[in-house]
Design a protein that fits this description.
Pfam families: DUF4470
Strand content: 5-15%
Protein name: DUF4470 domain-containing protein
InterPro entries: DUF4470 (IPR027974)
Keywords: Coiled coil
Number of domains: 3
Organism: Gymnopilus dilepis
Length: 679
């Protein structure tokens, strides 16, 4: 199909492109001059097309529309601008220009809320009926209660957005930098239970701005058979790092990363950035096929640059970059992402069945949840919410269905009080929950992007059973891939975060199976994690710590939750402070109200029994570590404070604090955290 005289291929084969080719040949090894020549050509061509009123398209866009015939394509290949640029080693200039061209079509990052000048404390002013939404009624109840039917929400699907708030894994002010003025050396962290990037972001952003050491971060996504969650987690983390790396403007990079991480639907121009990141990743895997074979068939290895830091002789600095090894399932998923073609309408149909706002939160917050369910954008009220594209990391790339359960929200991944504080600092009202989240994430992503460029940070990704990973690291299996250290015995970590695998029944390798003489009912989980990983703690650092959490333990332990006697006493406390409304306590909503009782119940004794029955202290003693009574990194419970005794309840300094931690936060508040230090 030919082109009209008002619609031409951008950078077509013509005299100007031939002249550029000759100019680049003459410049030979003058890379800077070549970059300038290509940039001049790109801008000149676009400006000329716009002046002539021509609709210009790249060759890729034309091919996608079927507008390049075989003859056209053959002629284009002679002096295609992309091919020409790559032939001279300046393809990056073209791709950067193309990204900027696409992102110019997107709305710019917000610095403050669009409604920042509205009088504080007032409800939202809206023109689309939200102010009259039934969700604002004080007597609102969920539809399944009003209609006297059972719920039909999908809650058994693996979540991508977690519900354990992220935390700083180092907490330097309570550890390495506690007391007198000290300087930090090199640090090494291992996240063996999840490849999720949230804890990493908070940890890197909390480093002193003067940090000059190297930071090595191991992230492992355990891969239970048939569970796509690990593949999604490692893919989202790698692509987030690449997004922050390929978009040179820090604010714009953060904008793209925020929506990739926290929006169900994203601005359409952002999809080009995702494609570029995917292509960079796929190319890196292909370039490392030799290393993959040398690794003994453990998966697909990759090696990517991060930032621009190089050694003095111009070689790659191995202390700065992204390396790893992924499973075949993840490799297939990443390739499928390039084929994703779901439209906005397809995504809306596949998205969540309807709003799931809690009955016991402020009406304006119910509306905020409802709006997010309807549109899927993490933006402040009044921000751009135009037609977008489904987030490729949250929808199945080929089938197009939503990949999470009906209770998943990006807000649940972070400390809700810190989120609201960040939002109000940018002019957001606290009623605008997802607007607050936008500014909270934007602040963090901007800082993170800056530090990825400034600091010496090496990321090493794995997708492996934690027990098998520990064995391979000890044996030096991954050294040929640059994923270990030349002398495996010297591989140590200042922090090892095992997440929730201390209670989750991974296979833990054949030598820890049910028939193993080394295994029994009490050490099949937390004991094995300690046995495998405590030896990797850095013995030279007295602050070295293993840490993790238990979120499902209550179903396995008696007295882990308040019984009738405890609930009676707690009821009096709640009524005396006006936190319970007996008029609204519908029998079907008791599970929601039950969290109020959990918040004021001391479950520490039950948790100690839970750990004791699993031989935790004995397992720790065998490997030279000890469970801490006073934590130095994370509180014992969500809502607590570092340094609290185990029996301390979550802190509620104000009624607002109670509201955010109990009524809005989706964590159950029965979760317990543990820390193990050197004995």
């Amino acid at each position: 199909m030919g082109l009209s005289n008002r619609e031409k291929s951008l950078f077509q084969y013509d005299a100007r492109l031939v002249a550029l080719s000759k100019q680049l040949d003459r410049l030979q090894n003058d890379e800077e001059a070549k970059r300038m020549a290509l940039a001049d050509y790109l801008n000149e061509t676009v400006n000329k097309a716009e002046a002539e009123g021509i609709t210009y398209l790249t060759d890729g866009e034309l091919a996608a529309q079927g507008q390049l015939g075989e003859e056209d394509q053959g002629e284009q290949d002679q002096y295609d601008a992309v091919t020409l640029a790559e032939r001279h080693g300046i393809g990056q200039v073209y791709y950067d220009w193309l990204l900027r061209r696409s992102l110019k079509m997107s709305d710019p990052p917000l610095e403050d809320a669009p409604c920042a000048n509205d009088p504080p404390g007032e409800e939202w002013h809206c023109e689309n009926g939200e102010c009259k939404d039934p969700l604002r009624n004080s007597d609102w109840q969920p539809g399944w209660i009003r209609e006297k039917r059972r719920t039909n929400f999908d809650v058994d699907i693996p979540r991508i957005w977690g519900n354990i708030p992220a935390s700083d894994t180092l907490n330097l002010s309570h550890n390495e930098l506690l007391g007198e003025t000290k300087t930090l050396g090199d640090l090494s962290l291992a996240y063996i239970g999840s490849a999720d990037l949230r804890d990493v972001i908070l940890t890197v952003n909390a480093l002193p701005s003067t940090f000059s050491g190297s930071l090595t971060i191991f992230l492992n996504a355990p891969a239970p058979p048939g569970d796509i969650k690990s593949s999604l987690a490692i893919m989202r983390s790698i692509l987030t790092l690449l997004i922050l790396n390929v978009v040179t403007d820090r604010s714009l990079a953060a904008e793209v990363a925020v929506h990739f991480w926290a929006s169900a639907f994203v601005p359409s121009p952002h999809t080009l950035v995702y494609k570029r990141a995917l292509q960079d990743f796929i190319r890196s895997v292909k370039a490392d096929q030799k290393l993959e074979r040398e690794g003994g068939g453990f998966g697909y290895s990759f090696d990517l640059k991060l930032g621009k830091k190089e050694t003095r002789n111009g070689d790659r600095d191995d202390n700065k970059g992204i390396r790893g090894i992924i499973s075949e399932e993840t490799w297939c998923l990443i390739n499928d992402q390039l084929e994703a073609v779901s439209s906005f309408d397809d995504g809306r149909k596949a998205n969540l069945k309807g709003p799931l706002p809690q009955h016991n939160i402020h009406p304006s917050h119910r509306v905020a949840y409802s709006v997010f369910r309807a549109w899927g954008y993490t933006y402040p009220v009044g921000g751009p919410m135009g037609i977008g594209a489904p987030n490729p990391s949250l929808f199945a790339p080929l089938e197009g269905h939503w990949l999470q359960d009906d209770t998943a929200y990006p807000l649940d991944e972070w400390n809700i009080e810190e989120v609201v504080a960040a939002g109000t600092a940018h002019g957001c009202q606290s009623a605008d929950l997802f607007g607050c989240l936008y500014f909270y994430l934007s602040d963090h992503m901007r800082t993170f992007a800056q530090r990825l460029r400034k600091f010496n940070i090496a990321f090493k990704f794995f997708e492996c059973d934690p027990h098998v990973l520990a064995r391979h690291l000890r044996e030096g299996t991954y050294v040929p891939l640059g994923l270990g250290v030349p002398v495996p015995e010297k591989l140590t970590f200042d922090r090892i975060n095992f997440g929730g695998i201390g209670e989750f029944d991974y296979s833990f390798g054949d030598d820890h199976g049910v028939n193993s003489t080394n295994a029994n009912a009490t050490d099949s989980r937390i004991g094995i994690v300690l046995s495998d990983w405590a030896p990797f703690l850095n013995k030279k650092n007295p602050n070295s710590t293993m840490m993790g959490y238990f979120s499902n333990w209550v179903s396995k332990q008696r007295k882990s939750q308040p019984g009738p006697i405890e609930m009676k006493a707690i009821t009096l406390q709640l009524l005396s402070k006006g936190r319970l409304d007996s008029q609204k306590m519908h029998p079907d909503l008791i599970p929601a109200w039950f969290k109020y009782f959990v918040a004021l119940y001391d479950n520490s004794s039950a948790f100690e029994e839970f750990l004791a029955e699993r031989g935790t202290d004995q397992a720790a003693q065998k490997v030279g570590v000890k469970k801490r009574t006073a934590h130095t990194i994370v509180p014992h419970r969500i809502g607590g404070q570092v340094g609290d005794p185990p029996e301390a309840l979550p802190h509620f300094a104000t009624e607002d604090s109670w509201y955010w931690k109990v009524q809005v936060c989706q964590a159950s508040l029965s979760e317990r955290f543990v820390e193990f230090g050197l004995a």
